[in-house]
Design brief:
By secondary structure, the protein is mainly beta. It is 10% helix and 30% strand. It has a seven-stranded mixed β-sheet with strand order 19-21-27-28-25-23-22, with no helix packed on it. Strands 34, 37, 38, 39, 41, 42 and 45 form a seven-stranded mixed β-sheet that branches. The chain has a six-stranded mixed β-sheet with strand order 8-7-2-1-11-12. Strand 38 and strand 39 form a beta hairpin. The chain is globular and about 100 Å long.
């Protein structure tokens, strides 16, 4: 996951998907009024979701009208746009004139092509506006503004609209927040009170058509009425009043409150977030009555399209009516609400907000946690299933969850996505360092939120960690007859990582992996790492690692690799990530050097005079021109000998899962858009293996690396193959509780794999060495693994 803004709760970025401001409600953000009400041309509508998913129109737009009695020449004028907190303004120049009482339509940027074509505009620009929040100015010249939060008062500004709660400038207060499907339109096109929140309402876009929007009276509602038994509120976009509850927690831009008198429907949450935009004045334990607008906030704004929304009250007016006891936490787990055990969502085929056939908290994890959104919860002695992340998130499950790993994690399986798991987040209090197998003391309490593809449990007091005793594993050394072959993702290794990283990896190789004879490395970067200098060589990186191994008391290693095409094979820009071999020089393992290899040169399978297969170049790359490797690391094949017997090793690093739908996202079942690329890559490698086996069915072959896919995936199936030439996927030989090499958001899973040809299986042993993925202080995010095998003559099979 990229280190982008993590949560609006955490950072105060204020983006809400939809809201409808009811005239007369209190507003939280206040700006100085504009210098004067426009007497002629005003902005009547603003829309920024054009072309996006669910958009009714292909383009963003700004609509104007002329409220004077004479035509107004706008030649030399402009409409300008800036982001919600920005000072850089983009300009669309206007032409012609606007007759009294007519609409003047300015078309702006197009999105992804969704929606109907726009009506013919008066002027077409290309500005890509935010779908949720931003600032629009009607300016009587064509010079870009340079101001930020005071532009509404610029003498050249004829009219100004701050739309969305995140806008840091507006006339008095911003409009409600928009979405892909909603615009902000002036309630009465003929009236301008210089108060954007009062003058505009959020509704359906109507480009080129001047409309008046009647104000609906607010609806008296309970929290469970607002939450409803669904992923979006049945009252979304409506004004509500007389919403009562007790404040349970608060953050820098709002607070959660809960109804102490719940209904009898467990599918409707009794908790709700009130978005105040600035620090709330209420205290925990206050009894409050709230009125405002019901909105659905999608974390990440337009960049968070796969996220679920959370229901909120925006533009609130809050009245403290007294104090009351905070409701007892609803316990999640034994003795309380028990989460489903295997299914995240099975009632939808696409967007759960529109296609779900049932809201089923008893069976579907997505619905279970949704039914608790915003509520004050407790988990008794939560069990830690993954390490505290760099984002200060910590995955836990209640007692009774499974299938558990041998070290206390929870295993991701094809038919079990672990709906019991939830992430603690540090929005309200620091989250401590913890590792897989630890527990948290007592009943941990907090409120339930959602962001970045996961439900988030937000404690209000830092939990106490109880050490589970899990230690870093070590593996045994191979016997004199066995050659040990390991795979290790060294996580973007380059010289700028410093001694700590290199020394840590060296210790892992020597102490934890028992100095394997052959190392297949993934994520080796060039000599200057992310510096985009055109350098592709990695000799400094690999020599430094080899030296660190000797310094750690290990043997001398030599290495082999082929520099990639500059910036062509994915990974961190400028880093020129690649795979490589290291091998011991003090053991019977020998590398067969055969010249001719290069970044764009494919190694092929040749035969000697006895018909035995060899690589045409060693090391050599596997079909580097194949489209399967576009923006991906090309596999590296090496020919080794062990006690005179030939051993072929192919090290891989397949395309990542970046871009797939999240497990807990809006689209169910999650679509793995990256899977097809890995299937193509697996087919290429399988074809290469078949070429070797076609010349010698008893060839000794090891295929290993970071395949970025599960042991039960189609990618693995393709590599395994079938019949007499099938490879054995060694992770599949392990008991389920031991079958993992990686922990992502608390789910233990296999991504790294070693596959071997059939003749190597009888004498083999295999170990995933759990020393990284379960711990917060990692030298890599992957656990290495090692196979110990005995290469045999081809006639022994």
């Amino acid at each position: 996951m990229s280190a982008l803004n993590r949560s609006r709760r955490r950072l105060g970025a204020l983006v809400i998907t939809t809201s409808l401001f009811a005239s007369g409600l209190a507003v939280a953000l206040v700006a100085a009024p504009a210098e004067a009400v426009s007497a002629d041309v005003v902005i009547t509508e603003v829309y920024g979701g054009g072309g996006n998913s669910g958009a009714p129109y292909t383009n963003d737009f700004i609509e104007l009208t002329n409220n004077s009695s004479a035509a107004v020449d706008v030649s030399g004028w402009s409409v300008q746009y800036a982001s919600s907190g920005g000072t850089t303004w983009q300009v669309t120049k206007l032409t012609g004139s606007i007759a009294p009482g007519t609409a003047y339509l300015v078309q702006e940027g197009a999105g992804a092509g969704n929606g109907a074509p726009m009506p013919t505009p008066n002027v077409a620009g290309t500005i890509p506006m935010s779908a949720s929040a931003g600032k629009v100015a009607l300016v009587t010249n064509q010079t870009a503004l340079t101001c930020g939060s005071t532009c509404h008062a610029d003498p050249a500004v004829r009219d100004y609209v701050g739309f969305g709660s995140a806008a840091n400038d507006s006339e008095t207060a911003p409009t409600g927040t928009l979405s892909n499907s909603t615009s902000a339109a002036r309630l009465d096109p003929t009236k301008d009170t210089d108060n954007n929140s009062a003058d505009f309402a959020v509704g359906n876009p109507s480009p080129g058509t001047l409309t008046s929007t009647p104000t609906e009276p607010p609806v008296a509602a309970k929290i469970h009425d607002i939450q409803g038994a669904a992923h979006r509120s049945p009252l979304e976009g409506k004004a509500v009043t007389d919403v009562t509850g007790v404040v349970t927690a608060k953050t820098g831009n709002g607070f959660w409150f809960q109804d102490p008198q719940p209904d009898d429907n467990p599918a409707t949450s009794e908790g709700l977030f009130v978005f105040t935009s600035s620090a709330p004045t209420v205290s925990v334990g206050d009894a409050v009555t709230v009125e405002g607008s019901v909105a659905e906030f999608r974390p990440g704004g337009s960049g968070g399209a796969t996220n679920l929304t959370t229901t909120e009250i925006t533009n609130p007016k809050v009245t403290v009516t007294g104090t009351a006891a905070v409701p007892a936490p609803t316990i999640v787990g034994p003795g309380g609400r028990v989460p489903p055990s295997t299914v995240i969502e099975d009632d939808s085929n696409g967007d759960v907000e529109t296609t779900s056939a049932a809201f089923d908290p008893a069976e579907d994890g997505l619905d279970f946690w949704e039914s608790l959104e915003g509520m004050w919860l407790g988990i008794d002695q939560p069990q830690v299933t993954g390490p505290t992340s760099s984002f200060r998130e910590l995955s836990v499950v209640p007692a009774g969850s499974g299938v558990r790993t041998v070290r206390g994690g929870i295993l991701l399986q094809k038919t079990d996505s672990n709906p019991e798991r939830v992430l603690l987040d540090d929005v309200l209090t620091p989250i401590p360092d913890a590792k897989t197998g630890d527990t948290l003391a007592g009943v941990v309490t907090g409120v339930l939120d959602y962001s970045f593809g996961n439900f988030k449990f937000l404690p209000t007091t830092t939990p106490t960690v109880v050490d589970g005793g899990v230690k870093r594993e070590t593996t045994k050394a191979s016997s004199p007859l066995q050659v040990s072959v390991a795979t290790f993702n060294v996580e973007n290794l380059d010289p700028s990582d410093g001694d700590a990283k290199f020394d840590g990896l060296a210790q892992a190789v020597v102490k934890n992996l028992a100095s394997p004879d052959i190392l297949g490395l993934e994520e080796v970067q060039d000599n200057d790492g992310a510096t985009n200098s055109g350098t592709t060589a990695a000799d400094v990186t690999l020599n430094r690692l080899a030296a660190a191994i000797v310094k750690a008391g290990g043997p001398e290693y030599a290495w082999r690799q082929i520099d990639p095409v500059n910036n062509a094979e994915g990974g961190e820009p400028g880093g020129n990530i690649r795979v490589a071999f290291m091998y011991r020089t003090d053991k019977p393992v020998k590398f067969v050097d055969r010249p001719g290899g290069g970044s764009t040169v494919a190694t092929t399978i040749t035969a000697d005079r006895f018909g035995r297969p060899h690589l045409s170049s060693s090391p050599g790359r596997v079909e580097p021109a194949n489209p399967a490797w576009a923006a991906t690391r090309v596999p590296l094949a090496g020919e080794f000998t062990w006690h005179g017997q030939t051993l072929f090793v192919v090290v891989n690093h397949f395309s990542s899962k970046g871009g797939d739908d999240p497990l807990w996202g809006r689209f169910q079942p999650p679509v793995q858009v990256t899977a097809d690329k890995r299937h193509q890559q697996a087919a290429v490698v399988r074809g290469f293996v078949d070429q070797i086996l076609a010349k010698d069915k008893g060839a000794n072959i090891v295929v290993l690396g970071d395949l970025n896919d599960f042991d039960w995936s189609q990618t693995a199936d393709i590599l395994v193959g079938s019949g007499q030439t099938a490879l054995t996927d060694l992770p599949r030989t392990l008991p389920l509780p031991e079958r993992y090499s990686y922990v992502f958001e608390g789910n233990s899973q296999i991504l790294d794999q070693i596959l071997i040809s059939k003749n190597l299986l009888p004498s083999s042993t295999y170990d995933v060495v759990h020393m990284n993925a379960e711990f917060p202080d990692q030298i890599s995010d992957h656990d290495p693994q090692v196979a110990r095998i005995i290469p045999l003559p081809s006639w022994v099979r």
